[in-house]
Write a structure and sequence with these properties.
By secondary structure, this protein is α/β, with parallel strands linked by helices. β9, α7 and β10 form a beta-alpha-beta unit. Helices cover 36% and strands 14% of the residues. The chain contains 11 helices and 11 strands. The strands form 2 sheets. The protein has a 6-stranded parallel sheet with strand order 8-7-6-9-10-11, with helices on both faces.
């Protein structure tokens, strides 16, 4: 691992055909841990190791792992961290995680990478893995007025926290007014993310987005994340810069007061929202499926192949 600059390695219980009962050649997890159950994943770091398995093998795994130095993690118990959560606790930001590409599917690898990236982003921003995030990302006014950023942050957090989850605000003002970010009073639940270098990383971990007229609404809406528009100065902004769309025709709930905003959040329906977003996208003629780059790459290879044949 040190030779390849790896700080952790993930060893599943499968083979290149994703089988559960596998040939001896692919029994790496059994070899390294001594655990002979058919299901389980071992993760090894430079000084720690853990085995994740389900309730069928709790007793067996406890016996076979005794005195090995490998910790048993019992899957689907509330106190058991996921592999990503555990790695987030034992590794540093610059550490690398290795896998065997023969026995990990593309989808598994992609999901693991995304989860590790989200974990790192949350660490960079100073929020915990369990925190749910409201991103407030308004645009700027020509005169750099910040009076319009008057959300009742505490009431929004109180309302969302009734779900028993722990919610925090990440507040990212537009670069044009970044020097006025201190207009908002921050605390442990309201974090200033104005100077965080990548807005799209924040979008990746955000569960809810509140904006006013920023195009960030479309990026978040495209992946069906809840977006709320809090706009207290519509007429003034219309005179200043105007809009590409009628705000009331957008699929995003619109509020002009804090009372309206709380009501929109309280009455929000994810299923109805997704239908509205989909209808809006179709009205624009959007055909995006999330595979545009893949389709383009395949087309390029087809053309190259045709040219080579000629």
């Amino acid at each position: 691992m040190r030779k390849h600059k790896l700080s952790a390695f993930i060893i599943p219980s499968t083979d290149p055909h994703s089988g559960e009962y596998i040939p001896k050649h692919w029994e790496a997890r059994k070899w390294i841990s001594g655990f002979t159950g058919s299901a389980g994943t071992v993760v090894v770091t430079l000084d720690k190791a853990g085995l994740w398995t389900d309730s069928r093998y709790f007793l067996q795994a406890a016996e076979q792992l005794e005195n090995t130095g490998i910790t048993l993690f019992k899957e689907r118990l509330p106190e058991t961290p996921s592999i990503v959560e555990w790695l987030g606790c034992v590794l540093n930001a610059e550490d690398n995680v290795g896998i065997d590409g023969w026995v990990n599917s593309y989808q598994e690898t992609s999901n693991l990478q995304k989860e590790l990236e989200k974990k790192q982003i949350k660490t960079n921003l100073g929020v915990s893995e369990d925190d749910r995030i409201v991103l407030y990302a308004p645009t700027f006014r020509k005169d750099k007025n910040v009076d319009c950023y008057n959300i009742d942050f505490s009431s929004v957090l109180h309302l969302l926290s009734q779900s028993k989850d722990n919610w925090k605000f990440l507040i990212r003002l537009h670069p044009a007014v970044a020097d006025r970010a201190d207009c908002i009073e921050y605390n442990d639940d309201m974090i200033n993310a104005t100077h965080y270098p990548d807005l799209y990383e924040i979008l990746a971990i955000a569960n809810v987005i509140i904006t006013d007229y920023s195009s960030v609404m479309f990026e978040a809406g495209f992946v069906k994340k809840p977006v709320f528009l809090f706009a207290t100065d519509i007429e003034d902004y219309k005179q200043d810069r105007n809009f590409y769309f009628d705000l009331e025709q957008l699929p995003f709930p619109l509020a002009t007061t804090n009372k309206d905003l709380l009501k929109q959040i309280e009455c929000f329906s994810q299923s109805e929202y997704e239908m509205s977003v989909e209808a809006f996208n179709q009205s624009l003629g959007l055909k995006e499926t999330g595979h545009a780059s893949e389709i383009l790459a395949e087309r390029i290879l087809q053309v190259i192949g045709t040219d080579n044949e000629k």
